[in-house]
Amino acid sequence: MSAASPAIQADVTKSPAPTPTATRHPIPIGTPTLDPSRPGHSGSVLTTTYIVQRGDTLSGIAYATGTTPEELQRLNGLRDPNTLQVGQQLLIRRQIEGRTPSIKLIPDSELVNGPTAVVFDTAAFIAQQGSYLNRYTEVVAGELLTGAQIVERVAEQFSVHPRILLAALEYVGGWVTQAQPGEDQLRYPLGYKRTNLEGLNVQLHWAALRLNEGYYGWRLNTRGYVRLDDGAYLAIGSGVNAGTAGLQNYLAAISTIPDWPTIAESDGERAFMRTYQRLFGNPWQYDFGPLIPSDLRQPPFVLPWRKGEMWYFTGGPHSTWGTGTPWGALDFTSVNVAGCTELQDWVTAVADGVITRSVRGEVGQSLDPSGDERIGWSVLYLHIGSRNRVPAGARVKAGDPIGHPSCEGGLAQAAHLHLTRKYNGEWINAQGATPFNLEGWIAVEGPREYDGALVQGDLRREPCQCKYPDLNGITR
Asked: Is 70 within 8 Å of 112 (Cβ atoms)?
């Protein structure tokens, strides 16, 4: 099965970006209207759950969640703190210190790498600045990349808008406009100081994770708080949108209680939004409106292997790309499981479309007439080996060969396919209003990542790192 956060690779192969066909909403006048209130946290204590991962210790969980081992042991009735089980759920209680501002900072379309990003040329914008970022290079996965290539790559993989990444890089590190940032800014250009790993690539990964964590936590109503760098917790203010919640989650991670108010406000000398506006102007001029229509339906998808073959369902709904993203991915492998050896069986296209990228285990496919995976429906096939992999720019029909399952493109214990969907750049949860449907096999979530099922009428298949036809085998 794939890890929650696929390893990030270096090279990018893309088709030319077309002009988006959808129109933007008019620029709001004044402060955008707050959204209707919805059920959320109230009170001074927040209770959430934590799922034990491989290698976790009680002391490590306590540190990461802002509590103590003794409190975790008492709250969860743990007789022996040294006998944690992978997948075990622990209750976590957090003291709430206040609320984030109830004001909209950015539209959703400025956080997601969707339709409004199509007309933004990241490399050209960086080149115009003539700054440190413009001359920066870094070796990523054995390949020398420019600063612009790294920003574009992170934006593409995490599906986070390059403008918000550049604004964060300028706000903390000054890399976008300054010729020579300070020493601390060079080491931690996005504010991620709790690591010995330095450089633009790892810092951007961390920032993108925080942005997505807040955005999808708010969209799916699974995360109603932010955690400051000093360990304090704030409930997210009422009436904000997902884009604002995502931005607040990132800003909280680089803030402490004393400096948070000046960073999180909509204007002011130290406000993040002042930096954004200096670079890109009023964010609401880019407002696309809702990225996901209320009546969205998935187009017909076929199973991603050849007719007559039986493949095995090895991973139920889990993170699409990194922790904090929706449980929108499903894992499959064929009968010829052999560790990370590239398999002989073919992964095939689930629908008609254009291949937008084919690199380092990633194959992106646009189902939209635009041919751009930031517009309309798109699919990501991950862990596709390099041998005979379909090239970028190819037009494929449902059932056409994509490539062979492998471990390329992320952390994996065995060769397999990781399959997930986006609409207008937004990752789509496998269960919900628009369920993952593969020829009538409907995805159902479990209590933990990788659990769950695929259901077709009276038939049910459950994920397993095994090959049992009646348990997880599916024939196309």
From this structure: no
- Is the pLDDT at 6 greater than 50? The verdict is no
- Residues 353, 229: one domain? no
- The answer to whether residue 463 is domain-embedded is yes
Are the CB atoms for 340 and 80 separated by under 8 Å?
no
* One domain for residues 62 and 200: no
Q: Which pLDDT score, from 0 to 100, does residue 40 have?
A: 58
Least confident of 61-70, 186-195, 224-233: 61-70
Please give the average per-residue pLDDT across 465-469, as a whole number: 92
Structural tokens at position 221: 């109503």
SS3 443: strand
DSSP string covering 267-302: SSTT-HHHHHHHHH--GGGG----SS-TT--PPP--
Range of the domain at 220: 108-286
Query: CA 369 from chain center: how many Å?
Result: 24
Tell me the CATH number at 83. 3.10.350.10
What is residue 8's three-state secondary structure?
A: coil
Alpha-carbon distance 325 to 113, whole Å?
14
Q: Phi/psi at 134 (nearest 5 deg)?
A: -65, -25
Residue 39: the pLDDT is 62
Cα 429 from Cα 451, distance rounded (Å): 14
Compute the distance between CA of residue 113 and CA of residue 358 in angstroms, rounded to an integer: 18
The amino acid occupying position 32 is: P
Please give the share of the chain, as a percent, with pLDDT higher than 70: 91
Tell me the C-alpha to C-alpha distance, in Å, between residue 423 and each of 118, 177, 212, 448. 14, 33, 15, 24
Based on the fold, state whether residues 435 and 342 are members of the same structural domain: yes
In a domain, 364, yes or no: yes
Assess whether 314 and 189 both reside in one domain.
no
Kindly give, in sequence order, each residue whose CB lies less than 8 Å from that of residue 283, ignoring residues fewer than 6 positions away.
Answer: 105, 106, 107, 110, 273, 276, 277
3-state secondary structure 203-232: HHHHHHHHHHHHHHHHHCCCCCEEECCCCC
pTM (predicted TM-score): 0.88
Rounded CA separation 262/108 (Å): 22
Helix (H) or strand (E) holding 242: helix 242-253
Q: Report the number of distinct structural domains present in the chain.
A: 3
Give the chain's length.
476
Would residue 103 count as lying in a domain?
no
